[in-house]
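Dear colleague,

Thank you for sharing your sequence with our group. We've completed the structure prediction you requested, and as agreed, I am returning the results in plain text so they can be pasted directly into your records. Please verify that the sequence below matches your submission; if there's any discrepancy, let me know and we will rerun it promptly.
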Amino acid sequence: MSDLNSIRYNGNSRIYALKGDLTVNCKSGKKYFEMSGVKTVIVQGNIIFNCNTQYKANDYGASWAWIAQGGNISINNGTNGYKALTRLEGVYAAIRENSNGGDLN
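Please find the predicted structure tokens below.
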């Protein structure tokens, strides 16, 4: 997914929520998933990053939190045709729930 607007929580433009896994990819032609503003992404499942993340230039107040509840956060290491990731801006938390998840790898 390269655009999170489809998973806004109750129409809130600062909170995104999803039940199930979320894969973060770059938009076509981009090298980074660009983030701006203050946002929280909550996933009840795994979050898989196939793209570097970066705050938009000159957005000094930007802050994103990525939370995997009962899942893991996986960072692509150069497999499946993707380049290994080298830059992840933001705050990342994998929360163990009912013996599931809680790993960052």
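Summary note from our side: The chain has a mean pLDDT of 92.

Kind regards,
the structure core
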